[in-house]
Fold:
Amino acid sequence: MVDLLKLFSYPKLMHQAGVLGMNSRNHNIIARYNKRSLYPLVDDKVKTKTLANGIDINTPRMIGVVEHQYEVKDFQKLVEGRKEFVVKPAHGSQGKGVLVIKSYDKGLFITASGKTLTFKEVYQHISNILSGLYSLGGQYDVALIEELVHFSNEFKNFSYQGIPDVRVIVYKGYPAMAMMRLATKESEGRANLHQGAVGVGLNMQTGKAVNAVSHNQPILIHPDTGVDLMTLQVPKWREHLMIGSQAYEMTGLGYLGADIVLDKERGPMMLELNARPGLSVQIANGRGLQTVLKKIDETYPQGLSAEQRVDYVLKQAK
Structure:
């Protein structure tokens, strides 16, 4: 396994190891294959969810949307009769502004990390979302309220309290590289590497763990649960890859990141898409992404359906 972290200070060595750098990603991949006019399809989670539902991609059900400040005081009407839900900014990124409520009763809200919030505190959080505090570029935003995912027992002890998710990097419609992000106590139940979650690189043919990192450092054991991360294998792997592959047709983006969760009842569900996915998937896998993209460019067939592309990847991946 290549120690990618040691290569980041040496551009020549990065190139030789097939590592995709930020500048190359931005200029050679994103600028070339992602039209800016298509960004709103993934930057706005409400639009993304609507598009996905239109082609039967499984997603968490939307409970409601809070668009204006005067509506915030009545947000409890949207969640009336519900014990749990998620509040997120429609234009948020990197998990910022996502509030997971696991229990709600008599005006008190219990978060995924066990913290108790009052109505006033949740009110303020939604108000902050609308003001653009968590959105890309600080633009005016809306608050999306959706059902809480109940993660599969397959991942018991692999994630601390929060929902683990799979990030699939899709290039020209082909799933190219993937990792699973596991929540930790430090990340407060969120599967976000920037907030301290664990990243586990996945074999593209089997969905089995090949490598794991925390704060960009190799690990084998989950820091909070003590589980052996190398025993992780994502069930319904083909269905995960299908969601990523279908997202290409849905958005027209040649390079994207698909975030997918596994619900115990409804199976793999698309959580959101990203037109500018980060490059930490390389560190999680201990492998450069540029080599994979080059192989897709030079040897993978064109004109295949989403299903055919996934089947091709499953046969080609090593």
Remarks:
- The first helix runs from residue 11 to 16.
- The mean pLDDT is 90.
- Residues 107 and 218 are 43 Å apart (CA to CA).
